[in-house]
Amino acid sequence: MSTLCRVQTAGTTLRTTTPTRAQHLALTAAVVVGVVLRWWDLGGPRATFDEAFTGMYSHLPLADIPGALRDHDAHPPLDYLVRHWFGGPGSTFALRFPSAVFATASLLVTVAWMRRRGWFGVTVVALTSVSSFELLYGHTARMYALVVLCGTIAVAGSEQWLRRSAPGWRWLVAGALIVGLFDHTSTLLLAGALVLVPGRRTDREAWWWRGSMAGAIAVWAVVWGPSFLDQARHQNSSWIPFTSAGATVDALNGLVTMYAGLGVVVLLAVGIGAVLLRDEDRTLSRLWVVLFLVPFGAALLIGFEVHFLLPRTLAFAAWAPPLALAALVERARRFSVPVAAGVVLLVGVLVVPSIGPAIRYEESSVPARQALRAAVAPGDAVAVHPSWLWPLAGWDLGAPRDPAVPAELADLDAFVFVVGDQPFDGRVWVLQPDTYALPLGSLVPCDGVEALHRGDYLLSCYVTPAT
User: Fold this and answer.
1) Local mean pLDDT, 10-residue blocks, the chain (467 residues)
2) In the beta sheet, which residues pair with residue 5?
3) Backbone angles phi and psi of 7, in degrees to 5
4) How wide is the angle at C-alpha 281 spanned by C-alphas 278 and 285, nearest 5°?
């Protein structure tokens, strides 16, 4: 038997239950599955370009990292500073280790937040444990797993503050906000939304809340704001789509599944669940609107003028779709067994097939890079075109940022370095995407070595005329 109690605080009512044995077992199973998935084959898939970039820049001297990011990236330095202490070129497991820790912590925070809310809470935890978005970035050496953790702490802490108005929860949320701001700039969307959490309240604690969130923004603005303005002037994100109906659906869809064709179904399921969440818990429903729908709307508006809108832009709100889908499942469960079975099947179709692709994700460059690694020998030169892809060569082959370029290759429009300590032997391996053509000058193809087309990349062998 479960024990139901109501906690009346700050004008809201929270229904809590002591988990039944079945609920406790289900929660335990969900946590075990979620933790295992977050660590499964963590170092297996080869690093993506973004991960290689993270690896190379995070392992610069500590004092050089902020300046390098200001000149060559669009993100704050916290994630790079954290990963500085983990691994080095080629150590993919170590580089991803912090992401798995943050993803595991996000799941545990969700358990603490939801464990006394009956089957609704069990469903939220289960959906979080198999969330393809959280699994993908828990397996990726980028800043998004920490943003997910900060966003989860922020919404859970905001709910507790609304119910109890205890200053400790305010400080917890403000701390999570500061960490998130120094981890990824999109957290500014969350920051603005958090200021709105007190609503129309005018009591002293409500003003302290607003001031605490504004203070967190001010700390970020003073410390990193000037660098952010420099980054905004030179960043190139033209590959990110402007806001459109399709981009909006894709942004929400990416928080739920890896399959683009399910976007309309995800939109309907999450939208209906969000409406039903109000009947489950009005405070959670309000926070869903304030901390997800409002910043999502702000991202859409920004995206009309700036290349901005992607699923990972909303990483701070990864908790939102599981809450909405859990509300949908809970309403169906209370309606009838057949309806509940159908809704559970629908939600399962949305989330389960994406688990494997999320934890095994590799980019199309991997086969060509593996072939290059197998073929290259000390004394060979490697030319990567365009040159901004140099982190791939740095991560896979240990190339330095500013290598000495043989005179014969000085005019080649590519990042060029010689492998190992041997002098240049005249052989050049060229790695490039299909979409970028490299003028080869006087280079001639290697005898008996065919060009390899793998994925969207081309690997070719050439020699200098004098060879």
Assistant:
1) 42 68 96 98 96 96 96 95 90 97 98 96 98 98 98 98 96 98 97 98 97 98 96 82 96 97 97 97 97 98 94 98 98 94 96 97 94 96 96 94 93 95 95 92 92 91 88
2) 16
3) -110, 110
4) 50
Encoded amino acid at 409, one letter: L
Which residues on adjacent β-strands are paired with residue 349? none
The span from the CA of 152 to the CA of 158, in Å, is 10
| Strand 444-445 versus strand 381-384 pairing type | unpaired
Name the token pair of 132.
Answer: 């393809």
End-to-end Cα, the chain, rounded Å: 82
Q: Please tell me whether residue 197 adopts helix, strand or coil conformation.
A: coil
Contacts for 35 with CB less than 8 Å, ≥ 6 apart: 104, 107, 129
Which residues does 188 contact at the CB level (< 8 Å), separation at least 6?
181, 217, 220
Q: What is the pTM of this model?
A: 0.94
DSSP code at position 423: P
- CA atoms of 395 and 370, how far apart (whole Å): 12
Residue 319 burial (C-beta neighbours within 10 Å; 0-12, 13-18, 19+): buried
Task: Classify the C-alpha dihedral 289-294-295-296 as positive or negative.
Answer: positive
Helix (H, G, I), strand (E, B), or coil: what is residue 251?
A: helix
Q: Are strands 415-418 and 381-384 parallel, antiparallel or unpaired?
A: antiparallel
Backbone angles phi, psi at 231, to 5 degrees: -60, -40
Return the sign of the alpha-carbon dihedral for residues 179, 182, 188, 192.
positive
Q: What is the pLDDT of residue 222?
A: 98
- Residue 6 belongs to what H/E stretch? strand 4-9
